[in-house]
Design goal:
five-stranded mixed β-sheet; GMP Synthetase, Chain A, domain 3; 3 domains; 27 strands
Amino acid sequence: MQIASFNDLVAQSIKKHWDMPSMSDYGDYTYQYKDVARVIEKMHILYEQCGIQKGDRIALCGRNSARWGAAFFSILTYGAVVVPILNEFHPNQIQDIINHSESRLLFVTDQIFATLDFEQMQTLHGCISFSDYTLLASRSDELTNARNNLNRLFGEKYPNNFRKQHIDYHIDEPDEMALINYTSGTTSNSKGVMIPYRAVWSNVDFAEAVLSPHIQAGDKILSMLPMAHEYGMAFEFIYEFIIGMHIHFLTKMPSPVILLKALADIKPAVLICVPLIIEKVVRKAVLPKIQDPKIKLLLNVPIIGDRIKKKICESMREAFGGKYYEVIIGGAALNQEIETLLKDVGFNYTVGYGATECAPIICYEDWKKFKKGSCGKAAKNMEVRIDSPDPQNVAGEILAKGPNVMLGYFKNPEATAATIDKDGWYHTGDLGVMDEEGNVFIKGRCKTMLLGANGQNIYPEEIEDKLSNVSLVNECLVIQKGEKLYGLVYPDMEAATKLNLGKSDLEAIMEQNRKELNLSLPHYCQLSGIRVVDEEFEKTPKKSIKRFKYTDYPV
């Protein structure tokens, strides 16, 4: 496999799309590709002046924005390593990551900086504001002087204006480290995933192969997933920049009202999202309509039923902007009832599968060939196999191999050795089966699989999928206490309030739900009780519940 320089792709895109819009903060300012090039060049001067070396780490912590994106490319094209940090992390966690990664600079929003203790981050030369790239703190005279005189230094270097021909970026090697991405897993605490340039390039190569026939330079995308997470970074930002698209960053929390207005305004050419977004739209806007007894009856009438389904599909398509090729869902499992509805009405969706450790793609299939319930087939450049004596019928761990696989965990050789075997296979920790066509079906996590009293394998995700569809359940989790299973439920409080239901009412309803649910479950999967929790479950950026936080929940 011939792996190109990723930074050369960045340079080519900037030159080719010089005068085109590149990145916008939705409803605010826009950078053209040439503006990004100028930011990159100025940051390179700053890095050089304050002694940043190739391979040094530079951290980014803030909401998605055009300035976040420009800073990201300035770091890679200089030859330094990006450390993206989720803005939702606790201040102590942010400081721990900066210290653990030994970052030299921190780009950060003013609001987050106000919560940090600069004195506790001794490896930093200084902190730079995302609002205007000014210094928020410095312990380096060279950094302070360089920032105060940056426009003069830039003018002296390019007295006759900065042009395309001046672009000269670091040429990366395939196994050179590009990023350290700290995970926020559902079953453990954060680890620093070392992502090489080959993995970043390979994800772009994959996206170009499957999406470029349907998308072109100048098309728009709405970026709403956190760019500090590989899913959003790879497929709402990096790929789009490389092919010359116009990226619109949703800088606010994607509430339904804000999100639907942005989608209507931008009309993205492809939509990347997590199941939570799709499920919310379907539950609020679609399910209530088709649960009317008359509509249910008509859905089963030939021709009329097809017309109703077509209208449902068209209304959903319009809600998501009306112009996209497909909706790519990833990051967590899609509810089976919702997926059945999407497939039944002909909605153009697909479900992919990945991991931070693969930057992130492992499996994918185009929506026209996608098999319901699966997460696609091995993506371009990747191999996937099931560690099972009978992969089609007996679930085994999903293993992946190829250029997408990480170098390992930063400063953690033990965890690396436990995750990547001597033959280069990445052990995902997920359990699944694979049909004869190569479609992968995820059953659950190795770490979450429970053992029944007689040795039966119990996949809590499968029980949760059914539990989430019963009355007044908003979020749920299944845990094991001894040989008994319990459901933890955060109710639909909006509906409960409208019905004037108190906690005792909700507990009674959940007990009835439990009895009805158990009728559809094997004996060894049945719930001994359902407990109502008072707050939403703590989640990862992918909106997956952090399971390890609730294993000892009192029942």
